[in-house]
């Protein structure tokens, strides 16, 4: 009898006795309530996997007058003995410590099944042959019993209950139906743990799915029908929501390379009363629809590698949401995406993007990053830089429509502009960032090929001259352009209101304010009046007289002259873009002072003549075009000392009549002198004190 991992020689007499015993046991096993898996499992399963102890004893061919060896132990470990002693050995050493699965027992095995180091010979080899178990599903050898139990449970959670060559899914009773946005999907046990299930479903990514749906709805309003691809379907929840709500406006393709996931996607399509299209054939519970018949409730399901399906076909909308980084699929995504189409990608490798594993970020994104106060925006710009380089390799440029970085993911949505000129313009926006580690000031490195002797002099602060050693680092390359398109965000907000996506609406309102760099009290559904803007689809969009926004909305490719003129106007309007990065008000608070409320502080900065808004990257972050020195000056002016408990919130008078709007030297020191003379009950007056606060001081 041969096993997968070892060849065990058994005398012919024992094999004949085993065959006779198996014939005698067949009627008894057929009457048993235990499921007979003898026809399902492979015939060459290991001899340590048996149903009953008697089956294990038949392998040894126990006879009272003869010595027999143990079939699961080498002769060097257990010598041949009589039947009564061998029976106790099999029962105590092998059977009692077995692992049970669906009527079968995986007994412990001491044969030389596991590989041994080649440098071990003789007794050393025998001593290294430890006890182990053989998995009935995948034939793996595992040493510990607890590990074997966990190994079997992982197979069950994945729906694998037979051999590795024919996978059978878990019973229907173990499925759970989850409903999201009027869409029902079946999920497997442990569906929220990607390492333990093939069909991964994370309820915490609901906001991510709603944002992607709004972006697709806006594109569907520009031109229809559009072909969209969900490259990593898993349960198919995202593609089902697209087809169920947008209907005839989209032609949905859901792809996954896992067979279990593809089967579950088909079942979820039937659960939501959708037809499944496979190889130009549409199926719906056995019903076939002709190729010439159009049906809006049809979803195409493919089983391919994501790179392959994107190389073979062209799409208008592609969404990438793998487990981890998306950089391995960017080249394929931009290869065949149509002009003015949209590519969205979700990156969940936040440990590398948020500078917890900097070497991984350098390996995946080719970007050097450190942990800063604006690390989330740093992560978004690193992803966009990788997207820009991948698009430029295919002679395509991008326009960033949306960039969101939250606790669990980084979402980037870009529009594709075909041609070498847009590709060059996008590539020029990938630059290095100079970051001061002392005061957290930052500035993008200037364009040009000339090497500066001291590039750190580009920083507005004077830390490189007043502090010893190296105070700044070079980060990047990063995307230096805008992170949001205001018109696109407003249309996304209207789609979210129309389809009742409650979780996405507050975030989209924040993004619109952040894109325009305004406070929430100035927010309105329509942008401020502009003579060169017209209203379309309920929102104000730019006409061809101002920028290239119109050809993006109408979905038509304009001539090269129009594109060049639009690019020139966009350069003139570059100053109107939202300022890059933000400051954390807690990071720059002054020790011993109570800072003002965040909304009041935004008003103070706005009154000083600066553009200001909140940011979704950080709940205590402030996006403003004010230099860090002026930011700290305003914060200092409207902070109150902690020792004055009853003092109202108001300005602190600065010496020398320094006004907020004036330029202040970076190394200047603001002296705050306050004197308070009061007599307590004992008649002792308090002393006069003076404190100094440098403008370039750190959070301490």
UniProtKB/TrEMBL annotation:
Any one of the GO CC terms: nucleolus
GO terms of biological process kind: tRNA N2-guanine methylation
Protein keywords: Isopeptide bond, Metal-binding, Methyltransferase, Nucleus, Phosphoprotein, RNA-binding, S-adenosyl-L-methionine, Transferase, tRNA processing, tRNA-binding, Ubl conjugation, Zinc, Zinc-finger
GO molecular function annotations of the record: tRNA (guanine) methyltransferase activity; tRNA binding; zinc ion binding
Gene3D superfamilies named among the record's database cross-references: N2,N2-dimethylguanosine tRNA methyltransferase, C-terminal domain, Vaccinia Virus protein VP39
Keyword Ubl conjugation: yes
Ranges of Basic and acidic residues composition bias in the record: 1-31
Disordered: annotated segments: 1-39
Reactions the enzyme catalyzes: guanosine(27) in tRNA(Tyr) + 2 S-adenosyl-L-methionine = N(2)-dimethylguanosine(27) in tRNA(Tyr) + 2 S-adenosyl-L-homocysteine + 2 H(+)
Keyword Phosphoprotein attributed: yes
InterPro entries referenced in this protein's UniProt entry, alphabetically: SAM-dependent_MTases_sf, Trm1, tRNA_met_Trm1_C, Znf_C2H2_type
Primary location class: nucleus
Location in or out of the cell: Nucleus, Nucleolus
Domain C2H2-type positions: 135-155
Family statement drawn from the similarity comment of this UniProt entry: Belongs to the class I-like SAM-binding methyltransferase superfamily. Trm1 family.
Annotated protein name in UniProt: tRNA (guanine(27)-N(2))-dimethyltransferase
Organism: Setophaga kirtlandii
């Amino acid at each position: 009898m041969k096993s997968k991992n070892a060849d065990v020689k058994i005398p012919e007499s024992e094999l004949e006795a085993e065959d006779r015993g198996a014939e005698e046991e067949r009627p008894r096993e057929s009457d048993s309530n235990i499921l007979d898996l003898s026809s399902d499992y492979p015939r060459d399963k290991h001899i340590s996997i048996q149903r009953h102890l008697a089956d294990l004893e038949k392998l040894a061919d126990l006879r009272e007058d003869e010595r027999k060896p143990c079939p699961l132990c080498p002769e060097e470990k257990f010598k041949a003995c009589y039947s009564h002693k061998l029976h106790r050995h099999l029962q105590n050493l092998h059977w009692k410590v077995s692992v049970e699965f669906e009527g079968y027992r995986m007994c412990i095995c001491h044969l030389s099944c596991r590989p041994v180091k080649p440098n071990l010979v003789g007794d050393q080899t025998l001593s290294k042959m430890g006890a182990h178990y053989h998995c009935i599903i995948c034939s793996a050898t595992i040493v510990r019993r607890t590990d074997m139990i966990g190994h079997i449970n992982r197979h069950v959670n994945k729906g694998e209950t037979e051999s590795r060559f024919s996978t059978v899914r878990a019973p229907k009773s173990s499925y759970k139906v989850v409903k999201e946005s009027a869409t029902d999907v079946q999920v497997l046990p442990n569906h929220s743990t990607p390492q333990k299930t093939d069909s991964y479903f994370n309820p915490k990514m609901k906001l991510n799915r709603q944002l992607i749906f709004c972006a697709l709805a806006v594109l569907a309003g520009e031109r229809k029908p559009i072909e969209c691809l969900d490259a990593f379907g898993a349960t198919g929840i995202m593609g089902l929501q697209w087809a169920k709500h947008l209907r005839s406006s989209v032609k949905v393709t859901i792809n996954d390379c896992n067979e279990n996931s593809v089967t579950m996607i088909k079942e979820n399509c039937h659960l939501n009363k959708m037809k499944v299209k496979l190889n130009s054939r549409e199926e719906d519970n056995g019903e076939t629809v002709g190729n010439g018949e159009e049906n809006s409730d049809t979803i195409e399901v493919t089983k391919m590698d994501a790179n392959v399906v994107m190389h073979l076909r062209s799409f208008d909308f592609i969404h990438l949401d793998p487990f981890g980084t998306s950089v391995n699929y960017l080249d394929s995504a931009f290869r065949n995406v149509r002009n003015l189409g949209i590519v969205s990608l979700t990156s969940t490798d936040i440990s590398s993007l948020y500078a917890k594993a900097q070497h991984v970020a350098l390996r995946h994104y080719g970007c050097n990053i450190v942990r800063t106060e604006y690390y989330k925006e740093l992560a978004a710009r690193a992803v966009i830089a990788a997207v820009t380089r991948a698009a430029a390799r295919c002679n395509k440029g991008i326009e960033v429509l949306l960039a969101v970085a939250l606790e669990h993911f980084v979402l980037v949505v870009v529009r594709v502009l075909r041609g070498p000129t847009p590709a060059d313009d996008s590539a020029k926006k990938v630059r290095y960032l100079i970051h001061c580690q002392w005061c957290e000031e930052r500035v993008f490195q200037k364009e040009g090929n000339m090497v500066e002797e001291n590039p750190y002099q580009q920083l507005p602060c004077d830390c490189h001259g007043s502090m010893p050693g190296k105070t700044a680092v070079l980060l990047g390359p990063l995307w230096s352009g805008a992170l949001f398109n205001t018109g696109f965000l407003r249309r996304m907000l209207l789609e979210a209101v129309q389809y009742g996506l409650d979780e996405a609406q507050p975030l989209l309102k924040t993004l619109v304010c952040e894109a325009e760099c305004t406070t929430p009290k100035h927010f309105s559904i329509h942008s401020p009046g502009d003579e060169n803007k017209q209203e379309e689809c309920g929102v104000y969009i730019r006409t061809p007289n101002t920028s290239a926004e119109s050809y993006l909305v109408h979905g038509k490719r304009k001539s090269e002259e129009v594109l060049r003129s639009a690019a020139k106007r966009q350069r003139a309007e570059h100053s109107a873009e939202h300022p890059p990065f933000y400051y954390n008000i807690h990071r720059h608070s002054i020790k011993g002072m109570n800072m003002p409320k965040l909304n009041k502080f935004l008003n103070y900065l706005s009154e000083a003549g600066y553009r200001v808004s909140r940011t979704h990257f950080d709940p205590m972050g402030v996006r403003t075009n004010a230099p860090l020195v002026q930011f700290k000056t305003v914060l200092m002016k409207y902070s109150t000392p902690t020792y004055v408990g009853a003092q109202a919130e108001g300005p602190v008078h600065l010496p020398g009549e320094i006004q907020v709007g004036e330029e202040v030297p970076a190394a200047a020191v603001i002296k705050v002198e306050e004197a308070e003379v009061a007599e307590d009950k004992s008649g002792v007056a308090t002393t006069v004190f003076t404190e100094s606060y440098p403008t370039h001081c750190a959070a301490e």
